[in-house]
Amino acid sequence: MSLPLSGLKVLDLTRALSGPFSTMILADLGAEVIKVEPMPAGDMVRQWGPFDEDISVYYLSANRNKKGIGIDFRSAEGLALIKEMALKSDIVVENFKVGTMENMGLGYDELSREKPGIIMASISGFGSKGPAKDWAGFDQIAQGYSGFMSLTGTDESGPTRVGTAIGDLTAGMWIVIGILAAVVEHKNSGRGQHVETSLLASLMGLLSVQGQRYLSVQEVPQPCGNVHPVIAPYGTFETADGPLNLAPATHAMWGKLCSILGLEALASDPRFLTNADRMQNRHALKELLEASLKRRSRMEWTPLMIENGIPAGPINTLDDVFSDPQVLACKLVQTVEHPVLGELKQVGLPLSMTHMEDGSSVRTAPPLFGQHTSAVFADYGFAPAEIERLLGQKVIHQAG
Fold it and tell me: Residues 67-84: pLDDT tens digits?
């Protein structure tokens, strides 16, 4: 089976989450990704819990479909090996602090002098220029700095981080978009280039209408919790067994909602005649709607609302999600064999492509530290005796 990015060789010098997530996407799509980890212990994320049989679940979440090797980053010979591999690769991806690659002799300018067609992709915390360029790239710091946290939460909670490392993850996705654009450019011109993003830039790229509100009319949006900032009723409402999202976004939907809930009188109530009226009286409206919604469960209301043209859905916990028939039907979870853990379930690549077989994105498990070192160096043209010498002198590490 041919995958879309088959034939591309990626040297992955990333660690933690943003970079590994980006290279996992490339690997899912068929690129050959060589994950280079520093000796003696590998990617820092291997030490982050929770753990499954002493293997980091955090690490498992972002490193499948890669070949893993270990190299001594602190030795001149180790860095020379990395440079040699970089020059034999199509793409190099890194997320070190700004200036680290240059200090190791692996900066884009140096590599591109020897290989003009090389593509380098870099993820930083705050960008490669400006007063914050040397700040470490931690997701929650970037969520706060970018304004993202100021939009999330309620008056009572104050600013709240998003429940996943959204700055890391979106930076990974943005850099993949840039890498693929650079690959297309390379096919047309033969030129390589340096692609950069940051956690700050990635989150600002998601500000959407909230950012435009400020840029256009100088409104500073405040956190509005689970209610829509300009439409009512629209948000989260309690039912007999937990919260339900409802989105009756039009006046016609509002009328249908009143009918479904047996609250027809609300449609002509002066407090709720227009969306502006409902926004002004949204708290009283929420109490009236919830008094009726609490007569049934989330999954009793959901199909009833949808049948009547009102978008609705339960707020699931993850045990709900992973047993949900829609999730199962779409095969969003796939299974791969891990050398230690046995069957390993993973959330697969959330894309479907005509010429990519369903379920093909999860092919090999996240590698053990140094699992493929000898095989990868052989593939890069190193003689068996040279590989044995490097292993014996602890310049490189092979698992087991």
Answer: 999 999 999 999 999 999
